[in-house]
Input
Amino acid sequence: MKTYFFYILAVGFTAAACSKKTSQGGTTVQPPPVAVDTMLYKMMPFKMGASVNVNLMKTNASYNGVVTKEYNSITAENAMKFGALHPAQNTFFWTDADYLVDYALSNGKRVHGHTLNWYTSLPSWVTNFSGDSTAWEDLLKTHIQTVVTHFKGKVSSWDVVNEAFNDDGTLRNSIWVQHLGPDYIARCFQYARQADSAVLLFYNDYGHEYSSAKRTAIANMIANFKSRGIPIDGIGLQFHITYTQSDANISTAINMAAATGLKVHIAELDVRLNDAKDQGLVLTQTLADQQAAKYKYVVKAYNTIVPAAQQYGITTWNVGDADSWVPGWLKAPDYPLPFDRNYLRKPAYRAIIEGAK
Ligand code: XIL
Output
């Protein structure tokens, strides 16, 4: 294969010529020997995506450059969530999301929408909303259909419902369950389908890799939807994982998703290193290599287990380590992504390419 031939040639050249090291928290990590002009998505048999931050896209040329060069699918990290798009009952704010969609379409990238329904990131007008079940149903339907209609023909797919289950497999007692009952999930999918007959509809969640109860509950919901004719096209595995997650658990989660027969999206991949919450953690070569091995395993398992027709792609949750949500979430330094804070490639970058071979 032509690309591969040049890749081999360039690897030796780049490794010798490149003396720049990745700087992370005071230590250095060897950059992977990959040709500088490699474009990640061109090395992959399926779409390779990143979630993106609108502000960084607008203000940081390195960030924008990496997204443009390396990925062919994007997800808005926050700009399409309820609170961002629908800040007041009669006000929709499209500016940021439209900016991303216009950018993606003019650069030939797929847009995956995230997310129409979630228990959090809600504006106060929703959390304070008082109305009977008809008024709540109208609120839910209006939001979903206004958003899906606005992006019709531009957004390829939606995470229709995000994180509806608890880790023990029970339904999360969200504001939606409280006001609309457990079958609101099915109605979200129906409302989205009514607004756009072509857009792909996904159920997205986390924890399939560590909770058998949760992945079983999700598989049961999907089987139930199919038996009732509720439209659903895909399953999103977020895969916010730790580098110590076992390969067996990763395979089990991907197997379960593939067995649904739906399209499978690894939708929010990051591989964190610091569940011990060491406040002084630096990225050593050893840790970067262990992280790379886990990235490689995820890609390999996905590519091996999921039939090509079901491979919707892999999306990392943001681009560079400085942009990751993980340090804020776990309140400890971390380095979860394939690029460092200077947007230099880490060992994980090459591992993703190797995993797809
Ligand atoms: C996170 C974003 O990365 C943060 O910037 C934001 O403050 C909170 O949400 N699961 C999801 C994503 O489905 O929407 C979350 O994104 C991360 C966990």
User: Anything to note?
Assistant: Residues 40-355 form a domain with the TIM Barrel fold (CATH 3.20.20.80). Residues 77-78, 162, 238, 268, 325 surround XIL (CB under 6 Å).
